[in-house]
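User: I want to check something. If I give you two sequences, will you return the structure for each one separately, not as a complex?

Assistant: Yes, each is folded on its own. Here is the first sequence with its structure:
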Amino acid sequence: MIPYTKLKEHNRQNLKEVTPLKKPFTLIIEPTNICNFRCIQCFQSISGDNYFNKNKMKMSKECFIKIIDQMKSWKGPKLKVLKLSLYGEPFVNPNFCEMLKIAKLANIAERIETTTNASLLTEDICTKLIEFGLDYMRVSIYSAIQEKNYRVTNSKIDINAIHNNLLMLKRIKQKYKSNIPFVGVKMLDTYSEENDLFVNTYKDVADEVYLDKPHNWISYKGKSFIDDLYGSDVEKAKTDLKISSSNRMACALPFFTLAVRSNGDVSPCCIDWIGGTNIGNVFKETLEDVWYGERMFEFRKMQLKNRKNENESCRNCELFLSDYYTRDNIDGFPVEKLRIQKN
């Protein structure tokens, strides 16, 4: 299988040349926004009255089936990727494996993937991930050092248990002679010897082990998540961020992505935990109608005209500048060509 880190380059198209798309490349569905970790560099650690905390829930099977049915009815090519995870730990939802089965049978995507902390894997879940056809599983590790992992995740999860869960999955894959799910294990670069410890710890249970670039979630009341994680080393992370960023004007995500949250809210964004980019809800309109609708058109136009400050989430976001996380540059696409004609 293609390594996870190479997928963005596989059969890549120039987004500016194929825009406007009649159908998104990527659909993200959030099985739950609840997580069993409270990482200090994540909004999961924030308390208070905000959109995220007021909408914590597990997606119902009714909502999930509605989304899949809407995609089955939407004519056109398959999605390039269907991602079954967003702002929570997907295996918190006891229906995750059933959702995977429904999605796979629907045959709406070239591949299906998820992102997890791997702490909740069981033998039954591992077996069903193989049986129901999960193609890629990205595993987020927050530290290769036990005490640091406790501090960062605000949990009592033993990192040896996570390693053992991944070893269990590997053995079950071998039992069934399966190459899926492809397991990519990643950790944010620590700029220290911990990187080598991480690689050596997980190379025996993963198909790929790699380091991610640091990034900052949308700021909230002046909070900088990256400062909380790196502390006195934050300047190293910020320097790396600057080096690996480009001076873009528009965010490319709304031109190829849709995300559906646990409550059915629809957004073109995978980082907007505060809900400022919500442009619809699957219980009120179809995903196709959202994609072709006026709110999405205006959102894209806002990006191209460099009016991101008008949106409470976009004006505090820098992820779109990252060459590591965002490969596409849509700057300069003519607004008059934005309108999408339905088939």
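And separately, the second sequence with its own structure:
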Amino acid sequence: MEQSEDEKFMRLALKLAAKGNPSPNPYVGALIVKGGKIIGKGYHEKAGMAHAEVDALKSLRNAEDAKGAVLYSTLEPCNHFGKTPPCTKAVIDAGISKVVFGMKDPNPNVAGGGENELRKAGLEVECGVLEDEAVKQNEVFVKYCRTGLPFVIVKAAMSMDGKIATRTGDSRWISGEKARRYAHGMRSSCDAVLVGINTVLEDDPQLTARIPGGRNPVKIVLDDALRTPLGAKLLQEGKTIIATCVNAREERKKALEQNGAKVILCGGGRVDLRILLVELGKMGMISVLVEGGGEVQGSFLDAGLIDKLVLVYAPMLIGGREAKTAFGGNGSELVARAMKLRTENVKKIGPDYIFECYPAAQQCK
């Protein structure tokens, strides 16, 4: 089916939006079109910087060119003051005659207010163009606005038989260099990366995004007994959160805090993942990348807290009944009760295959 002109421009705006790294704000791209030609373009690069619509207006050679033009935005323009002024006022003042946007803003501070503001000012407004694509692009922001909880992505690199390490614990490297670089890109786009204490003790990871221009996520460790070494690499750079239990030793807690970690109490006996996610949401973190190991990933599976999975399969067989698997925990007693997955994308990166999946019963929230 041939795409309409509105779809063509909206698709270009979606590509522009993907260039940003705006968390905790949404991805937004915008185009200004006049006489069927693009005369301005912009996107929301980072939180605190100009929103996409304003960025597009600033890109015009002459501000007068906006008069009578059409603005395409992937998200409903905002009508409230945040870190930046409302976009609706800038659009109206510029003389734009029509606004086409992909999805309504799920932010309760907007919630249709931007559209109403534009209509009241006499602008023509059309919404819902490529809405599914726009919602998918902002799946993280949508969930956070609706629930106050971060979007949980589980990433696991494994052999074709589902092993993340050999029986001796060796895991370097199962996936290839290109797939590992892809994983670092995922870290850069997420607010936090989470591992268990066993991963810290065995691998001493940095958990940084080692790509050009990458943004390091907050590091989170599930550590029931506060065994994180004071000299651990993840304490040396950036922000680290240690999630532990209410009965954790106070002197150990103080020692970790003196080394720069933030220690939060999440239940008794064992870290309660639901309490942890609530606390992270209160801190304004809207996405968490879970990188394991297998027991941690299994715990998220058992608790039904996974929103998305990125599964990297390397073309090798490790074998061994004692080799570590990608998902430990209790698992399903019956195949009928196993989590069914909806695979939305499969791509080959170097020698490896990457599957992007969602729980089948869960639509994009």
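Because they were folded independently, the notes below concern the second chain alone. The two ends are 28 Å apart (CA to CA). DSSP finds eleven helices and 14 strands in the chain.
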